[in-house]
Amino acid sequence: MKTSKAIYILMCCMAGLIATGCASISTPEGGPRDETPPRLVQASPAPGATNVSGRQMHLDFDEYVNIKDAFTNVVVSPTSASQPRVTATGRRVTILFTDTLQPNTTYSIDFANSISDNNEANELEGFSYTFATGPVLDTLRISGMVLDSHTLEPQQGILVGVHRSDADTVFSCVRMERVARTDDKGRFSLRGLAPGRYRLYALQDLNGDMRWDNPEERMAFFDDWIVPTVKATTVNDTIYNPTTLQVDTVVEKASALYQPNDILLSAFSLGYKPQYLKKSLRADSTRVELTWNATQAALPPIRLLNDPQRPLSDWALAEVREGNDSVALWLKDPQLIKQDTLRLEVEYLTNIRRDSVKLTVDTLTLLYKRPKPKALKKGQTPPVIFTDVKSAGATQEYPEPYMLTFGAPLDTIYADRIRLQQKKDTTWITSDRPSPLLLPADSLNPRKYKIDGPWAFGGDYRLVIDTLAIADIYGHYVKPQNLEFKVRQAGDYGTLSFNLSGLQDIPAFVELLNGSDVPIRTQTVTNGTVSFTYLLPGTYYARVIFDANGNGKYDTGDYDKRLQPEAVAYYPKKITLRKNWDQNLSWDVNATPVDLQKPNSVKKNRPKAKRHGNANEQSTQEEEDEYFDPNENPFDPNSRRNRNRNGINGRR
Fold first, then answer.
1. What is the per-residue burial (b if ≥16 Cβ within 10 Å, else e) of 475-502?
2. Cα-based torsion angle of the residue sequence 96, 97, 100, 105 in order, rounded to the nearest 10 degrees
């Protein structure tokens, strides 16, 4: 019995040890997520140090750090052709200048958001490091924002820089003196400026030379000289009691106000693209397709090599896309159609530089391999070839014309063999519309035709095409058919009107936008009002273009002429339109700051979502930008700051 009891006790002890061992290696419970970015604890030389002579600097943080794409994200002022080497090892960031530092100069190293901790990738936002090689540290700043001139999209990661010269060519020929990079909201802060006046620029620096020498680069410029200033001020510092969560003390503390801090730069593109013939193709025996890389003022000369004096209109019909960047040549000459090889000469202008072009002549040899004809069985006749016709569909929008696209340009339309009929009860009654019924719809596309209204709301229509009614230029007829369509009811539509104020008598037009920020309608503002009728229910957005030159289209800027792009304002909310609903909105174009006008739901360059934020909250239309309120209780779970941090109802 004693032996059995001893064995029992031993087994219990072993089971206890096993259980204890299992418990000791189990996964511990997780704590709160680390949401704190790295903190600088020491630097050599110290931030703001003067009389610095060494070429190597060390920045030590309170945790392990990484640097994301230092070569692109980290910029150094004053600028130089040689970029310092910036590396991260453990808790230390090392900066090594390969060139000798300039004497009596303030250096600013703008890291933007490139430094983050090693584990959670929490970014240290807007971090910069400044020192001077002389006895004086320059501390003036210029701050502001860069937005796209047409779409008001924040320009993320774009360079902003200054010149002290006013020479016409300084921006395109000389590297910018001091630079900073915009953050994910398009904001910038140029630091380390000496007293004086400056010209301010923004540049999408595609080739890394910090000058505007590539016409494909987006840019912006400020019209006036900027003289940065600083003045002493005080701010309230609110101290909260961590026990009671109530305000304990409000004290004033000295601070500095750097101005200007509200500069707006409107970035634009010249629309420049290098011009070349991108594609040449013999699509089939009857069609040649040519595509250029950029738009052109007009369709360039196209000639047959074996008969260069023969005009294009004599041997082909041109179907041109708007902008003249592509053309389909429908061959009319039967002899050319029979040839398997076509040789053409195309003459067009090519950009050499931003302000210079040259004439380019391309010689094209276009081959076509004809498919082998299918063998016919005894007694079988060749199939009849018809030309296609495609309609706009079974639902017709009011009051738009009914659109038809044919498979090839048309040669003959027999008006007496085409009828438009409307259904009355159960009977189809032929319309007495004037002839011709089919009208060319597009001067650039010989295959597009239309039938104009008016239409009856809710009406049922059909287009009757009889045998041998329509023939294309190759002698192929449209197959006999009935194309039926129904016009929408009046109650299917809504009307959207705006009463605009703040235009200051400047001509303007409003673009109605879809959810992709693409214009779908345009209307000129008349006496401060604009109205869009017969809109389908859905979500819309709107922007107004200040049409300074009155040409009815948006015009970009021109730096050589010192012309800013035309001003733009967005209606600051999305618009939900319902069926059979007339919506009238008041719109003061100056009521909302320009950087807050564009609704987040249609914005493409949205600020990077915080790791601790809630995705659903960030995607809402009325999302508020995070900001710092010095009077806000940091322990209040219902404050906006904590609400954005923890997500709705504290979810993660």
1. ebbbeeeebebbbbeeebbbebebebee
2. -110
Q: Say what the pTM is.
A: 0.83
pLDDT band at 435 (very low <50, low <70, confident <90, very high): confident
Distances from the Cα of 292 to the Cα of 49, 273, 276, 318, 330, angstroms: 56, 10, 6, 15, 18
Q: Which domains does the chain have, with CATH numbers?
A: 37-137 (2.60.40.1220), 139-269 (2.60.40.1120), 285-367 (2.60.40), 386-488 (2.60.40.1220), 493-602 (2.60.40.1120), 615-650 (no CATH)
Provide CB contacts within 8 A for 602, sequence distance 6+.
Answer: 513, 515, 516, 517, 541, 574
| Phi then psi dihedrals of residue 251, to 5 deg | -120, 150
* Cα atoms in the 13 Å half-sphere on the side-chain side of 77: 27
* DSSP helix/strand/coil, 16: helix
d(CA 477, CA 469): 7
d(CA 436, CA 644): 64
User: In whole angstroms, what is the distance from residue 605 CA to residue 218 CA?
Assistant: 16
Q: What is the gyration radius of the CA atoms in the chain, in angstroms?
A: 35
Residues 398, 457 contacting (CB under 8 angstroms): yes
> Which whole number is the average pLDDT over 174-178?
97
Interior angle at CA 393, CA 392 and CA 395, nearest 5: 110
The reported pLDDT for the residue numbered 652 is: 27
pLDDT at res. 304: 96
